[in-house]
Structure formats: structure tokens, C-alpha cells
Amino acid sequence: xxxxxxxxxxxxxxxxxxxxxxxxxxxxxxxxxxxxxxxxxxxxxxxxxxxxxxxxxxxxxxxxxxxxxxxxxxxxxxxxxxxxxxxxxxxxxxxxxxxxxxxxxxxxxxxxxxxxxxxxxxxxxxxxxxxxxxxxxxxxxxxxxxxxxxxxxxxxxxxxxxxxxxxxxxxxxxxxxxxxxxxxxxxxxxxxxxxxxxxxxxxxxxxxxxxxxxxxxxxxxxxxxxxxxxxxxxxxxxxxxxxxxxxxxxxxxxxxxxxxxxxxxxxxxxxxxxxxxxxxxxxxxxxxxxxxxxxxxxxxxxxxxxxxxxxxxxxxxxxxxxxxxxxxxxxxxxxxxxxxxxxxxxxxxxxxxxxxxxxxxxxxxxxxxxxxxxxxxxxxx
Length: 381
Ligand SMILES: [Mg+2]
Prior knowledge:
Trehalose 6-phosphate phosphatase; stress response; HAD-like_sf; trehalose-phosphatase activity; disordered N terminus; Rossmann fold; 4-stranded antiparallel sheet; 3 domains; alpha/beta; EC 3.1.3.12; 15 strands; binds magnesium ion; 8-stranded mixed sheet; Alpha-Beta Plaits
């Protein structure tokens, strides 16, 4: 069962362990909850059965499960004088870092693995290139970050893959030489500037969920109206999906907001919800995600069945896990999770925050420049 963002991993008597794949769903700065090993929370069997039932009675239980996982991933801060708890968190952090080392400290190993292959760069936006901020409309990227991305795109095909509407993410990034996959990959467009890596006569444009546009608009308008009663709630129309932001909503109102979203969703069986960081996202039930977008873009670039490609995907969100998994399954390139805290992930490496992402991109450019013949560098710089 994968609906409502819970994955059943074990059944023992009356209790069922549920893996929360995004442990810090509503908090990017809190440590992993002590006493929740492996990122599991327990939901009673009865509750889960009611969850599966759906319908009117199921609405409350579904939203309760959302909020349960939100709370499980947003525990109160652990006081510094609780020695045992601190030790446990430290141990947990160090074993996670061992399995997902910093992409900066492993830079040489990464670049040597890419030798002889074409690096293709995939970048999430929020929390990866820009900091997570209270108001999603203010999630600007710095000029230094923009320069780093621009430089990377001079040497490697580069795509921005975001849950945001494509136009919106473009208005933040403002680089015409990139590929953009907005709405979780459901709205893909190639560079508007000439790109040397792609047949310039063949424009890339793909919208696998276009038939859902009227429905998404309708749900957006309903949610916009209904959520007015919840202070701080923000609804964002991302064209092929709708985001309901919890970031500015007091925790005591999470249940109300989640129930409200769930009750609207109940009327639209062709839509489903996924959770991001402090956000519920409503999207079409089609089998399309950031991982599919990555595969589509690799194919567009002529690397569908090639061993000569080395895709690198950097993201911070659970929706990026689909892309990390694709890379892991293909055995090509690797994923880098942006996170300060341990999370269950298919990424191979980690970076703590956007400033480290910038450092990684800058280092990649420097490495590439140094590996090129001098006359070619002079021509391009
Ligand atoms: Mg993100």
C-alpha cells in the first residue's frame, strides 16, 4: 500500500509498522525522533484498515495519518542536557553519514567514477538551490547560486526538476539555457537558448497530464476558498498539481487543514496526494514523477540506453526519491540528498544545505575546466 504516503513494512498482531520515508517532513532542522528507529511510526491496524476503506469516514482517518506522520517527523527539540538522547542522535547521525557521505568530501571519487562519461545535472529548486522560506513566493536563489548553475550548464546538460509550476520556477532561476521540468516533471520544456548537447532543431516539450488541467484548476479554486478558514494556510496552483502549504499554519490547526484537503480530495478519485516538506500536494494519479521526468530527459538527450552518461540528481524532498531510485536502479550516476539530518533515502551522497550545493557545483566547474585543453578554456571563459 503506498497511498497517503505510508508504506506498510511489517505486520505484527494488531499493530502495523509504517515507514515514514520523509522523516523530517515538516521540519528541516530537528533531529530524528528518539525512539523511532529506522524512521518507523506505528499506526494501529484498525486505523490503517479504516484508512484503506476511504469514503466519508475514511477522510478523517486519512488526514489523521498525514498529521501523525507530520508530527512523527517534527518532534520537540531534544534538550542538550539529556545525555542519552544526545548520544543516540549523534550515533544515528554518524552512521547515516557513513552510508551517505558528503558529496564534497567524496568529490574525487565522484569525478573519477564519471570519467569518460557525459555528466548530466538534475537540480531540484526549493531547499536545493534556494533556502526553504515561510512564503513560497519569496524563495529566491542568490546571484552566486545562479552563476554556479549557469557555469555548470556551460559544461553539462542541466535540468531544473521542481514541484513548482514551470513558469514559476523559471521566474526564479532565469536561465534560458536549462531544461525545466515543472509540476513534478509533468511539464517539461527544453532550453529556449541553443544548446550544444541537443539537436537544436528538435524542441523538447512534454506534458503527460494535460487532460487533468481543468480538474486541477477546479480543485485549486475549491481549496483556495475552503482553506481561507485556516490561518496561515496557503494554496499554490502549480498548473498540473496543487500545493497546500502548512509552513505558516499553527500545529494545532494541522488536523483541520489536513481534514479539509482530504475531504476535497475525496470527491476526485483521479487525484492523489503526496507529502513534501510542510506541504500536501494534490496531483493526477498518472504514473509520472520526477524519476520519469529524469528518464524522459535522458532519452531526449540521446542517452536512453547509453552507458556513456553519468546523471547527477541533487534534491532535498521525498518527491526527489523517485529520481534517486531511478539512478540506483539504472546503476548510473548517483543522487545527492540535501539534508542536515538523517533520512531514509535512495541517494548515495549528501550535502547539508544549499550553500554546500553551490560549493559542489562550483567545484565541478573548476574540475571540468582544469581537465580541458588550455586553448578550449580560453575560448569559453
Ligand atoms: Mg525541494
